[in-house]
Amino acid sequence: MPPKSMLLAVAGMVGTGKTTLTRALAQRLGLQMALESVDDENPWLTPFYGAERDSQQQYALRLQLHFLATRFHSMRTMRALGGGWILDRTWYEDAEIFARGLFEAGVMSKDEFALYERLYAELLTGPAARPPRILIYLHGSLDVVVARIGQRGREAERDMAPSYWKSLHARYATWIDSFRRCPVLRLDIRDYDLIRDPAAIDDIAATVRRQLEPEIPQTELFG
Q1: 192-212 pLDDT per residue, tens
Q2: Which domain holds residue 107?
Q3: Nearest to 94, CA basis, from 85, 86, 102
Q4: Could you list the active site residues?
């Protein structure tokens, strides 16, 4: 079993395969998963992505509060159940990339963002919101990421303007370069393909283990 308090996280923009990697690592390392709330679990996602810019303003705060509420729920669950966990997207991304990006773009008002920041600050003080032992950051060139978004089958995402993905890609690059909350392991999504080659998780898991040594004995991850 993994150490009781171990927390790993997977970060990266839409289309980088966070959920696929999270599931594979969870199975390989014996971790519990805290997955991002999307699709049917998030009633604001499709209306937001499918709306014109002016209409997005009515959904922006609701969308981000939904993600924030999901993070609070994940924190309570992790604390109640204990054990090792892996996160599919972090609360840092929710606030520092998406919510702030909407505010800076004028989609979320100053008062709305101030409310969001107050709630985000409360989340960060929670005992389960400790920084991960490692942040696994998935990245790739913009053209590769956009191509993968087009293959995902989510109509709302495919209809987004290319400028949106370009801006999001740039925001992620800026954010990760200044991220100092925990060690970062960068993985280029062009270097592996877990869909076509599931065994590729072995090398990734081995790299994660090397990052965690000597805290985690080999038998705990590969027993």
Answers
A1: 999 999 999 999 999 999 988
A2: 7-222
A3: 102
A4: 88
